[in-house]
Amino acid sequence: MNEQIASKQAICEKLIEKGKKDKDIVVLTSDSRGSASMAPFADTLPDQFVEIGIAEQDMVGQAAGLAAAGKKAFIASYAAFLSMRSIEQIKVDVAYSEVPVSVIGISGGVSYGPLGMSHHAVQDIAAIRGIPNIELIMPASPRESEVMVEKLIDYNKPVYVRVERNPIPEIYHSENVSFKIGKAKTLKKGDDLTIIACGRMVNTALQTAEKLAQKKIDCRVINNHTLKPLDDDTIIKAAVETEAIITLEEHSIYGGLGSAVSEVVVQNNPAPVKVMGLPDEPIVAGKPAEIFKHYGLDTAGVAQTAERLLDNM
């Protein structure tokens, strides 16, 4: 996988590969067959594909019914609408009923940057985190997304997954990518500072660590791909062994990764935590890169925040 592709494309390709061998795999979309990159699955395996139309609530309910009947149901739809319009069905039909549906929110965060608040999905993690019986994953790259799908096919629990819309850099240089739900991955060791990131912001964290290394700052980078269940041990270890923690996410500063990490740290080993995410306001419209720069969530902005944090300790 040398060229950059979107995680949603990687997910589709893996579902096609597995779906050819396993007729119980079924994919549902809601007026998002093309934008969710599931058109190739529909064309290849039409008998295992359902296009619901603009009816996210019905889609979640139908996926729950299919899963209850023994099918391996995957939903792929816009994260902004999937997580807000059908949150009750996710809570009751999927989580409360404990049916193993994989709810995949496509175009999460500010993927649809120019379309503004109606299409930004920056509260979905907070909403899902508060629901019992559902797990939450944000893979950091296309290759990690592929491995995640392999894990989810026979996974017996409800899961919400969030991925971005556009092609992103691949952070893994090996074909063999280990992935364990609930276990964070330390991608770079360091003793001065820890950056804990999720989703495509993991790549920003790695670039920031390289930039900080030029100033003799040794930065640990943790890919926290599973936000629920959280890997408490890895977070506590970072709080004990490094001077401070920065959390980095494409989500509101309330209720997401930063909140989850802070809850663990304050109850186990209090240490300075700087939550970096999107502010509590209607997010500006623009391309994702422009939005990240505007809010200081690009490499330069995160590095500057890290230096200030350490200087003030």
What order do the helices and strands come in, and which of them pair?
Elements: H1 7-19, E1 25-29, H2 39-44, E2 49-51, H3 56-68, E3 72-78, H4 79-85, H5 87-96, E4 102-106, H6 124-129, E5 135-137, H7 142-153, E6 159-162, E7 185-188, E8 193-197, H8 201-213, E9 219-223, E10 226-228, H9 232-241, E11 244-252, H10 257-268, E12 273-278, H11 288-294, H12 299-311
Parallel strand pairs: 1-2, 1-3, 3-4, 4-6, 5-6, 8-9, 8-11, 11-12
Antiparallel strand pairs: 5-10, 7-9
Q: Which structural category do the helix and sheet elements fall into?
A: alpha/beta
- What is the CATH architecture assignment of the largest domain? 3-Layer(aba) Sandwich
Distance linking N and C termini: 42 Å
What share of the residues does DSSP label as strand, in percent?
A: 15-25%
User: Biggest sheet, strands in spatial order?
Assistant: 2-1-3-4-6-5-10
The residue fraction in helices comes out at 25-40%
**What's the main sheet like?**
7 strands, mixed
What's the helix-strand series? HEHEHEHHEHEHEEEHEEHEHEHH
Q: Give me the count of strands.
A: 12
Unreliable stretches: none
Can you tell me the CATH class of the largest domain?
Answer: Alpha Beta
Structurally, the number of domains stands at: 2
Mean pLDDT: 95
CATH fold category name of the largest domain: Rossmann fold
